[in-house]
Amino acid sequence: MGKISVGILGATGAIGEMYRKLLSFHPHFQVRFMSASKQKIGDSLDGLGLENVEDIYKAKQLGVELVFSCLDTQTALIMEPLWGETSLVISSSSAFRDRNRLILPEINGGKVLGRTKGIFAKSNCTLHPIALILKELIAFEIVHATATTLQAVSGAGRQGLAAIDVLDNVIPFIEGEEEKILEELHILFEQNIPLNITCCRVPVYDGHMVSLEVQLKKPFIVDEIHHALKKVPWIEILEQKDRPQPRLDKDRGNGMHVCVGRIRKGANNTVQLVALTHNRVRGAAGTGIKIAEIAYGFTQPGA
Ligand SMILES: NC(=O)c1ccc[n+]([C@@H]2O[C@H](COP(=O)([O-])OP(=O)(O)OC[C@H]3O[C@@H](n4cnc5c(N)ncnc54)[C@H](OP(=O)(O)O)[C@@H]3O)[C@@H](O)[C@H]2O)c1
User: Fold this and answer.
1) Structure pTM?
2) d(Cα 36, Cα 20) in Å, to the nearest integer?
3) Residues with C-beta less than 6 Å from any ligand 1 atom
4) What is the dotted CATH code of the domain comprising 4-123+283-296?
5) What is the pLDDT of residue 70?
6) Which of 12, 61, 135, 140 is most exposed by smallest CB count within 10 Å?
7) What's the burial of 1, exposed, middle or buried (CB within 10 Å: 0-12/13-18/19+)?
8) How far is the CA of 235 from the centre of ligand 1 (A)?
9) Domain ranges across the chain
10) What is the architecture, at CATH level 2, of domain 127-279?
11) How far is the CA of 279 from the centre of ligand 1 (A)?
12) pLDDT tens string 248-293
């Protein structure tokens, strides 16, 4: 069987670049169509000419049936429904993260199984470590959780932040990020998990870190939390006292692992820990590809 022809919308951005890298050695998917903004149409990238994002007809002629969208939200709102009429669109943007289309594959990946068209949106990049850890703590009855994030600059995209604003600095605000995380957490778990969250931008290139504190109802010892997290294939516990660190650990599990360290017990039956994920792999392109693999039956939902 030949490879499935895919398109990347927004191939020149921070996430498009990661899709190109990961798809360059994918066993089942082959990139045949790439788009960028109007100024770059015709430029050459990885041996293909950059196309107009509106040229769905050209993509169809090339046999494209699967599309990874890395567009900004405003462009995605217009373009993704048009592509979704005839193709399966896996979106990195927040344009369509609603109850029917929001996917975090290890939680609700079964939704895409066998789908050949329509839009599915991977969840917010920073939500991945938070949701995947909270999922394992539900058995201990969560009273409430508090998260403080330290998010990499690549999370803001190519045009995101001027170096002069972020170098030697921490910016304790990311427009709309806290709201998205709370809303998507609620959609994913179909229940209200009380979460207080503060999102900060830090001068790290790739790798979002989260300090997470979760008050539990059930009394626990740290070993039980350790055990509950350790059995999950996509969670990797780092035993060294000063890990995880973005520079050293973001690529673990080919960038798909949630790296967890500093698991300890705090006041009032609270578990405290630090988690790290690669925002452009686990938080975007790696997960987008995993969603597509589930749709085509190459990967099992929840695997
Ligand atoms: N960065 C992350 O870590 C991350 C993580 C999760 C989700 N996301 C989401 O993923 C999406 C892409 O993020 P990014 O960081 O890759 O953004 P980015 O670096 O700004 O890239 C945006 C892409 O969209 C293209 N584009 C912009 N305006 C366009 C238009 N009017 N028509 C057609 N194409 C247009 C750009 O082309 P040009 O190069 O020609 O401008 C570029 O290829 C966003 O929705 C973002 O919120 C990002």
Assistant:
1) 0.97
2) 13
3) 10-16, 36-37, 39-40, 53, 70-73, 75, 92-93, 125, 154-155, 157-159, 279-280, 283-284
4) 3.40.50.720
5) 98
6) 61
7) exposed
8) 28
9) 4-123+283-296, 127-279
10) 2-Layer Sandwich (3.30)
11) 14
12) 999 999 999 999 999 999 999 999 999 999 999 999 999 999 999 9
